[in-house]
Every structure is written in C-alpha cells, then in structure tokens.
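**Protein of interest**
===
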Amino acid sequence: MAIPRSPGDGPRDLSRPLEQLRLLADDRHAGLRLDQVLCLFLPWRSRSSIHRLLEEGLVSLEDRPPRASCRIRRGDWIVVRIPQPPEPVDVAPGDFEIAIVHEEKLMIAVDKPAGLAVHPSGRRVHGTLIHYLHKRYRRPEDPAHDVIPRLLHRIDRETSGVVAVGLDEQFHSAVRKQFEERRVEKTYLAVVHGCPSPREGRIELPIGPDKRSPIRLKLTVVHGEDGLPAITRYRVRRAGSRFSLVELWPETGRTHQIRVHMEAIGCPLVGDKIYGVAPDIFLACLDREATLSDEQRARLVLDRHALHSHRLVFEHPLHGKGFTLEAPLPAELAALVEG
C-alpha cells in the first residue's frame, strides 16, 4: 500500500520527515463523504483513526470546512497533515547496518538486510531504505549537488539481498526499462523445508488470489481465468537432513512467485508466515508489530522468510553487458544448511 502522490508533485525529499499529503480527488471519489475518500486514499488506517485526524484538525479542504460528512467533488484538493511525534524523527533506519555492494556516479547497490522496508508504505512512513538513500544524497538547498535516488526494482521487507538504485535520471530510465522488459537476470537463494524432487527443474504454474484463505494478500496456484502465467527455474545447491539451499531464477515477475511455487511443490520457505508451516502466526501479527513467542519461533525456525536476492545481471550504459551485482548468502541462512 504505497503512500499516495498527487499529479504534478515532484519527487519527495525523504531526507526529512513526511509532514503532509496532498490528495487530488477524481471521478472515483466524486459524491463520496470526506471520511470515505480518506479511507480510500489511506487504506492502512482504520475508520476511527480517520475520524481522529478530522477531529484534531489535521485535514483541510480548499473552499469549505472539512467535515466527515462533506461530499467530495472531482478536482478537490485534500491536505492531510501527518501527526509528528514529540521527539524529532530520524528518517534513516537506526537498527540496520546497510552494506554497499557498488557505488558510482550513476547508481548505488546495497545488500539490504531482512526486516528493512525498501520504500515507505502504509503505516511505515520513516526508516526505510529509500529514506536512508535520500539522507545520503539529497541536497535540495544546493541544486547543483542534489541527487534524487530512484529505485530500479523492489524486494519484500523480509527478503534480504541486492537492491539497485539509480542516481541519474537517464541511467534510471534505461536500466528500469530492462527490469520492466524482464531482460535483467535475477538469481535468488532460498532455504526451504525438505528437498525439491527432481533436484533441478522448471516450475510452470499459474498464480492468482487464494480465495479460500483468510489472508487477503495470499496467492496460490490457480488454473483458469484467474491464474496468471508464472515460471520459475530452480536448482538444489545443498541438501541437508531438514532443509535445502535452492538457487532460483524467476522468468516471470508475479507477486510472491518464488514463495508460491516452492509451497506448491511441497518445499515452502523456512520462516514464511504466509506460505510456510504457520500462516496463523501471520494473522496473529496483523494488527501490531508483535513479538514472536518461543513456541512460534520454534515453528517458524527463522523470524523472517529465508529468501535472498543474490545476484542481478544487466546491461550497464557505461560498463556494457553482463554487469553483475552480487550479495553473499547471510550467515543466518547459511547456518541452516551447513554440515
């Protein structure tokens, strides 16, 4: 759930705390109540928290009082001021060490630790990777040296590994197109329960919503109109008594593709709260940043899902074809399959 942006707004300066959102109503919002429109723009907030924003005077309309029952017209600008904590907020992630894989004038690549979100979304408005990069490069007060980091791709918060970011607009445009056209070779490493059989193969199973699951964002293998084509190649690198280290190459880019496909062949990722052995833990953690109990940790084996973005290979405008970025397998994952 990305934080909404309005047409015409320039890149946000994420080196500073987010202070307000400007929301432009369109045909989808015309005729709805203000509180209903805010729920659509800010779906991670409960209805009661939306009403608190209104009661505390943090919402404004250009030409009339911002009452909850006020009917919204197409073209209305709604401004929401973000409540600020009493202490100054450091936008950069404070609990993570971020290793630099590659840095040059055109781009930077980092080895993102598991647990760090790539960009702000939903309740998470500070402390993400892109905030860290904005703090490192943004100089709005000095336009000649102001650099706007732009993500070339994304990985899940619990997934570790290589994330590439453009520091030059033309570079970003050229390489982003390679990502969109599936011309970037992506290699992942995963630790899974059991061992896939055969030990090398190609999974070609369509993916769609899991309508039977209480987890709304869960996907599954779906044959028929609701299923989108999805292909993953894999090879077992190392097999242990309980877990295996698997190398994976997604040929398509479906959401949660690797996780869905590995569950489908009976080898879910270790630590996966949605597609692993303990989806009830995910449901228990939905409404809060819950601390896992000892019993839950024992069932999961690992606090995060065991997926790592290992390698990216693409054509660099200066360095040419076969340009490679690589992040080593984290020690916590390697330990599961050692010996």
About this structure: The mean pLDDT is 89. DSSP finds eight helices and 15 strands in the chain. Helices lie at 34-41, 47-55, 129-137, 169-180, 257-264, 279-284, 294-300, 331-337.
